[in-house]
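Supplementary material to the annual report.
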Amino acid sequence: RYFHFCKLPGRVKGIRLLRFTSVVIIVLLLVAGALTALLPSIKDDKMPNSRREPKTQSQSALDAFTLIMQTYNRTDLLLKLLNHYQAIPHLHKVIVVWNNIGEKIPEEMWNSLGPHPVPVVFKVQTVNRMRNRLQNFPELETKAVLMMDDDTLVSAHDLTFAFSVWQQFPEQIVGFVPRKHISTPSGVYSYGSFELQSPGFGNGDQYSMVLIGAAFFHSGYLEDFQRQSEAVYALIDETQNCDDIAMNFLVAKHTGKPSGVFVKPVDIRNLEKDTNSGYSGMWHRAEHLLQRSYCVNKLVNIYDGMPLKYSNIMISQFGFPNYANHKNKM
Amino acid sequence: RYFHFCKLPGRVKGIRLLRFTSVVIIVLLLVAGALTALLPSIKDDKMPNSRREPKTQSQSALDAFTLIMQTYNRTDLLLKLLNHYQAIPHLHKVIVVWNNIGEKIPEEMWNSLGPHPVPVVFKVQTVNRMRNRLQNFPELETKAVLMMDDDTLVSAHDLTFAFSVWQQFPEQIVGFVPRKHISTPSGVYSYGSFELQSPGFGNGDQYSMVLIGAAFFHSGYLEDFQRQSEAVYALIDETQNCDDIAMNFLVAKHTGKPSGVFVKPVDIRNLEKDTNSGYSGMWHRAEHLLQRSYCVNKLVNIYDGMPLKYSNIMISQFGFPNYANHKNKM
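Predicted assembly:
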């Protein structure tokens, strides 16, 4: 008589069964939740902020880019460049950032000379700021942004190729103007171009920035830029300079990689001398380069470290301009 | 009297509790298993088979590569090349695949002229096969393999740079000799080099293969090659050719990307004429190129499709050989 059997009425059995299953279900949910949290972040997470990407993106907008050009005091050059750029393949739209405060935009004349291949939007600014071009413009519908200075002409071939390169490196700045920082024994950084030697770096050279005055980058970085610290904005406004250096810091910090990929241009021109305004770019100011070294050091303080990384990769188009450009001259 | 309470002896309660918990545990294991199977494959999964990677890998082996050179009938050239390659930075070991069947290896002489910077292992083969070099050699301790034909000299600068490029594209073949396939209206493919025009492809050229006779690739691909179909081996043995094309198919299929990344060499030389054996490479055979077109079409049948993808990216070292090599000549 070790065992005492007990017949239970159905309802009690039911209740117990119910409790049993509910416990199992709850445990399942907990486990599922835990494991889901453990999922490795997939590639797209490394993309710059993509929340801003319009849900309803036209097919064309997916394989296209938006040209953002900031202009100040040389409308004649702007119009010349607009005529060049409006015919570039894969161009979706042009956004002109109008820094000529109080001056009328040439929209009427532009329209009177239409039709034009793509829409051109003039964004009238209230203050002449270097960083106006880094706004998260609502008119922007493409993932890819091509940013160009208003005195620089890059050939359609170079742009078409560079865009195809950007599509393979969408989280980096893909452009035509490489620059670098140099560490010095004093711990102070210096900014420069290829003429600045890298002590201790053997054969060849390196770059750690690609300027955004002639480059493709992901539009998500424009939203990320809106969340930069006030100190960064203050630095750019104080110098009216360095917005491109700040973008390289942003991208390098975001990716943990070199911020830029340098594409060697076949045909890039500075048209500054073609303007009648007589105005020449800010980079002619005596203090321009010193300011940029100053900005690098300031940004290192703000970031509490140096996120920029060096690269020595230079990309050219296979078989262009000459069909055997890959043959060595031995 | 709707409720009938029943006191159960502890043992029965125990058994029921036991059954309850065991059920929960089993369910948990099932769920865990299921969810684990759902984990998205992380980047490393895209790496070629990495099971083979030695667990106990010396630090040096992680930032180093192994040179695999297959040799046939030109030992004088081999020794000249061994003297060149043994001094290359990051070289961990040299594996010589000895296809001179029945012929004594020059180990004695090699050792008598030591010491040498890195170990050289002679792998004596029993059959002279093109694909002997694609074995999963147990002496191989590095992730990176540098495979070189026994008549090709590439400068130390080119190799050091290309290795740094491979470290950024470890799942692709990073090398100095690009080739391509061409589709024809008949649906038959043709194999060729840059002199072969790509109909309908506008400016510039494209490549869809990087030959492994002067290239870096992941050692895991040598293990993957061991699992190729018999038809692939038969094709290579029948032609004594095309092992490099087969590797490009393997890598393209594995990655879904272009199989290769082309690095423009500054100094690459064919030393064939320097041999006293008078033996000249198989690629001089009249049928060589026709065979390779034949192989492409055969492999497309075996793969039931064309996995090769085109690329038009050419990588050079920034600032080398001339420190302003990135400046355009405008």
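Chain A touches chain B through 55 residues (CB under 8 Å).
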